[in-house]
Structures are given as structure tokens and as C-alpha cells.
Amino acid sequence: MTAHPTSGSSGSGSSSNTTSTSNIKRDASEMTTTSSSMTSTSINNDTPAVVGTRRSSNPLSRRQRGNISTLLTRKSPFGNETGSLPIGEFDVSNNSSNSTYKILVVGAGGLGCEILKDLAMCACGGKNGGGIVRDVVVMDLDTIDVTNLNRQFLFRSKDIGHSKAEVAARFINDRCPWMNVVPYHGKIQDKDASFYKQFKVVISGLDNVEARRWLNGMINNLVEFDDDGDPIPETIIPLIDGGTEGFSGQSRLILPRITSCFECSLDAFAPSKAVPLCTIAETPRIPEHCIAHAYVLQWPKEFPNRQLDADSPEDMKWVYERALQRAETFGIGGVTYMLTLGVVKNIIPAVASTNAIVSAVCVNEAMKVLSFCSQSLNTYMMYMGSEGIYSHTFVYEQKPNCPVCTAHTHHLSLPSMTTLSSLLQQLCDGEFRLKAPSITSSSKTLYMRKPVALEKATRGNLDKPLKELMMSGEELVVTDPVLPETSLGLVVNFSDIEE
Ligand SMILES: [Zn+2]
Predict the structure, then answer these.
(1) What is the pLDDT of residues 274-293, one digit of tens each?
(2) Average pLDDT, the chain
(3) Which of 177, 345, 386, 495 could covalently link to 413 via disulfide, CB atoms 3.0 to 4.6 Å apart?
(4) Which residues does the entry assign to the active site, renumbered to this chain (predicted)?
(5) In what order do the strands lie in the sheet with 409-414?
(6) What's the CA-to-centroid distance between 397 and ligand 1, angstroms?
(7) Which residues surround ligand 1, an ion (CB under 5 A)?
């Protein structure tokens, strides 16, 4: 979930990075002041904030704090800086109309709860109070589990089993009446381009790479181009992506077709560690394989009528003992009860403070791109909190052959006897990491997974060599559900045939 610090900042980007970092620091210190004042102020918007130790000659009222024109007109050492990213220019007159914008929050889990709360606090007073946030749509397909309650603070025990999106929206709307949060309980893939187009900014608090790839593909494809091939600014919807893992996290700003996108940084995420069943059954190499053997293969044999209950200590002890036995047989060390729990439950440690910090950065960026009040993050902020606290911003550069954000034709050189199915397998295993590719040439459909009838009709092509299906150098079009509304241009040259 967190990327490695692969590309550091360099060259022209470094000076603005320093400023971004200090911006974050400044905002963080202001946030502390704001939240402490919030606890000591009554709900009345007009009550002047009681700001304990803050030495300000001009204390702001609660209403003024939530008012965007306060943010835009107040003196600030950073106010008139224009960022290196073309999100627009600071101009008070542009923002005097008190317009509110529609925001999409994807995910209502650990990050999502924090993001919704931060948005509500930024919007204090709503449109009439001068806030720019009011209308928020929150999407999540999950229901609330008891293990969520320690950090997903919008949920209570009575909510267990209910939709995360619905409960979170209701909580925010009840507690912060200036907000209008609309829930959607379902998958992001259920909605099409016309749905995503209505938002001014999208904030993602997703916990898995596949969904983030899909969302990134969708938002990038909403960009339209003018006659010169330049992106039309009004069609660019900033995507702010937050992610956390244990004590580290990251937040990044994606301006589709301008900055790097999520797909550009796919290499920074390790491919999924799915182990083939045959390895588990026959040749275990690491303790995880032995644990998988115990709960995937041995459990159903021993208890054919009972599902393994990962929350039951007896069940887990059984799995642990079997895994240990198997590990000893193969001379593998390292099987522990904690590891067994981790493998079976697929535990990713979740830390509430990391979620709070990362989502605060995300919402801070959202405020900046909505109001142009300051320069935006360029483009990646990482936070590490396991040993002390450290954060760093750097420019994540666009990948020159990114299938999503740089329109490009990819070239492959393959022997003409390569079968179509082996070509498709290469697209899944190689750098594109596709999931279920379909492929057509200019003259015919080579293989389509949907609809069923077409799959049946084209299935026979899978075992045919490429030379029977296409000419060398012919351009093929590849589509895949992991990249919505994107098609990959692919030119295959036969390595064994002279052109
Ligand atoms: Zn990209």
C-alpha cells in the first residue's frame, strides 16, 4: 500500500518540495490549534473561538474559520505562490461566489471515516457560512465488522453488519448538519463515466491496488482533449489517493494527464503474493506455505462440515499445530501462532494515527485544488512513523509508456508460432499486470471474454499460433476490466520472419 521511496526529488522540483513540506508542517500546527479550540467552543457558529495559548491580535470566530474567504484573504507568507502544477492561479475574485463543490470519497473505512470528518470540519458552516464543501458522495461495498470499531470512529457496536457508507453518511449528516453526505453501498465498478464526471475532486481511501487501478483508469479517461491535443482543464478531475500500512502512509495528488498517475507507480507495489496450490500441496518453501496447507487443505478434510473460524482460538491452535508439524517435516522454521493468525486472517496492521495524518493531508490537498488557496502537493508525500516521525515529498514522474496516462503504442517481438493464449499470459505476467485481457485486430475479434457467446466463438483462437491470426506488425487492441475505458495499442512483430 505504501510505495517505496523509489524516485527521489531532484533538479527543478526540489525547491518547491521544500515549500510543500513546510506547508504541511504549518497546516498540521494550525490543525492542532483548530481542534483544541473546537473542544472548548460551544456549537454556536458565532461564538468567538476561545483559543487558549494562541497569541493572535485578531482571533477568528468559528464561522470565520470555516469561511473560505478568510482563508483566501488572510495574510500568509505562502498565499501568493503559484505552484509548479497548473491547477490554476490564486485569485480571490474567482472564489468570492461562495460556490460549493461536489466531492467523491471512495472508501468509508479507516481512511474514509477520517476523510469525511476532515471534510465536514473544513466545511463548517456549509455554503451559507462560506464553506466550499457540502455535497459529498461516499462509496463503499463493505459492511461493518467488530474489528473496525477501534479506529473507524463513525461506527458503534449497534452498527455491526450494516453498510459502512450508509452509517458513515448518516453519522456525519446528524452530527454536522451543514453537510449533505449521500452514501452508495456498492462497488466502484457499478458506476459509469457519467457518474464520475459530476465531481470536482475525488479522494480515494481504498485498501487494495486493483480498485485503485480501476478508479485511476476511470478518472484519467474522463479527460477530453482540444484540437491541439492538449487536455481541456475543465475535464480534469484531481484524484487524491491516500494509503496506509501500519505506521507508514502516503498521499498523492494525481492531475490526470498532467502528473503521473497511479498506474505509473504500479512497479512500486509488489505483485500479489498468491501462491499456486501445487506449491502449497507439494513443495512448501516458507512457513506461510505450511500454514496455508493446514487451513486450505487439511482443515476441509478433517472437518468437512464446518468452516474454519479464524476468531476461535481452538480452531487457530489446530491450524497452528498442523502447520508446525508440516514445517518440521520439510525442515522449515518460523511457524508461530502469530504468523498463523496473520496468514489466515490476512492481517494488515491498521494504525489510527497513520490514518488520521494521511487523510488530513488528502483533505488539505482537496481544499487547495478546490480553492487555489495555495500550491498543491507535487506530487507525492510519504509519511513514516515507526521510528520517530518523518515525512518527505517528491515528484513521482510520469512513466513514458504508461498504458493509462500516456497514449502510446506498445511493441512486442515474438516468434510467429507463439499461441494467442501465451501472448495473453504475457500481458498478465509482464509489466502491464492485466487481469483478464480481451484482444482484437483491425479486421477481426481474436479473443473476447464477454459476452458468453463471443467467448465461445473466439475460444478456438487461443491455441492457434499468432501467424494464423494476424500479420507481423499489425496493430492489436487490448482491453481489460482492470483498466476501464482504456485500450492498449499493441504491435506484435514476428521475431523469426523478415519483413
Ligand atoms: Zn500513468
Answers:
(1) 666 777 888 888 888 899 99
(2) 80
(3) 495
(4) 278 (glycyl thioester intermediate)
(5) 409-414, 483-494, 475-480, 438-441, 445-447
(6) 9
(7) 261, 263-264, 402, 404-405
